[in-house]
Amino acid sequence: MRRFTYHEPDSLTGAIALLEENGAKAKLLAGGTDLIIEIKQEAKTPDHLVSLRSVPGLQDMEYSNRELSFGAMVTHRMIEKSELIREKFSLLSDAVDNLGSVQVRNVATIGGNLCSAAPSADTAAPVMALQATLVVKGPAGERRIPIEDFFKGPGKTALEPAEILCCISIPALPEGAASCYIKHARRKAMDLPLLGIAVIIVPDDNIVCREARIALTLAGPIPFRATKAEAFVTGKPLSRQIWEQAGEIAVSESNPRTSFRTTAEYRKKMICALIPRAAEVALQRINRAWMKG
Amino acid sequence: MDERVMAMKISFNLNGEDVSINIDDHITLLEMLRDSFELYGAKEGCGYGECGSCTVIVDDMAINSCLMLAVSVNGRTVVTVEGLAGPRGELDPLQQAFVDRGAVQCGFCTPGMIMSAKALLKEKSNPGEEEIRKGMAGNLCRCTGYSKIVEAIKCASEGGCSCGKGF
Ligand code: FES
Ligand code: FES
User: Fold this and answer.
1) What is residue B162's predicted lDDT score, i.e. its pLDDT?
2) Cβ distance B119 to B132 under 8 Å?
3) Class of residue B58 by CB neighbours under 10 A (exposed 0-12, middle 13-18, buried 19+)
4) CATH number belonging to the domain at B93-158, selected among 1.25.40.10, 1.10.150.120, 3.30.300.20, 3.40.50.1100
5) pLDDT band at residue A13, thresholds of 50, 70 and 90?
6) Of A140, A243, A253, A269, which has the maximum CB count within 10 A?
7) Which atom of ligand 2 approaches the CA of B143 most closely?
8) How far is the CA of B132 from the centre of ligand 1 (A)?
9) ipTM entry
10) CA-B138 nearest atom, ligand 1
11) Partner residue opposite A6 with nearest CB, options B49, B61, B69
């Protein structure tokens, strides 16, 4: 591998200062499961790596009734193992369950997954549906970025130079909410998604949909919420037929591309098929089924 | 560039022993284990986190040593396949199970397989077949077809297996 200088600051201020000082020559290192590969391939050639490993607090996870917040260095494996997340934010567990291998999940961080902004990032759609706020710190201080303003394009985010994502804050879901993320891939393990579908439903007692959130990845250049489909299902009975229509509406909001993995046409068909399926799985998780008719 | 010569002194626990070494910043853990400590169990299959033949255990977690910088194990605990056998060379039950169940053919994947399985059993003493397969998804084998490997891990687990040997 090409040579570089490794830094392991013990404070965020120290990390920000190193990034400022070395500008474009420096890269931030989280778990490294993407970055080290890119350096090996010489797709990236930093002279300095600034590791966040010794910055305190970035691996903390906290939950109160109002929000779940976790540091950017929380690994996928920590999320996978969290019973609380599995129970209350199941779509997030779905997203990490089949991401890479155990070896990768033990090291790869949620902050890294979001900041790499790969169109295929598995955590993007769930975090989008969960309406997360990202807390970032940089030379100019702290700011909070709503997740819908974060992704700017493949590999591009709203982070300014020398800004560091510190914390991801997720508001608690309404009582009775159900959720599911479907990673549609060719193989179960060690594969990237062809499509990612996150659905959150809040049903009322009569199985009418009080609130719905649908977020998609690989259905366009950046992850997005299918707001028209969401509006369509809101206030309507939770029936298969209505959610099939929602799938079609979501397709009209999508702009998937043909890549070496699959075609745009196929992705569109799968958006139609998988939105109702994700909703159905979410309902099953709260022991509900589709309303008939 | 930096006044520092892009090398760092690190100390960590390697297979039960405290060690220190000066290591260049850009060296991976896999390179350090093989080239500096002459531990040749972990192997480079792909170098990109796909095959698992470089798997070692860092702080009780299976990781790909080809994707981890050596400098980042400073202060941590590293176990390689060489660290499993007892003081007189007695094989770890998991290693013995791999031998007994014929889970080794060419052997290239074996150290990585064993370390992944070791970490898996530490977490779940009695995993089911699905759990074993999921836990081992990051380890590729060109020879065995995996069945024997899954059986061996089952054999070495708390519940043992139907072969009756148990451990
Ligand atoms: S050599 Fe590390 S995963 Fe293949
Ligand atoms: S035994 Fe040959 S690769 Fe597994």
Assistant:
1) 66
2) no
3) buried
4) 1.10.150.120
5) very high
6) A243
7) 2
8) 19
9) 0.94
10) 3
11) B69
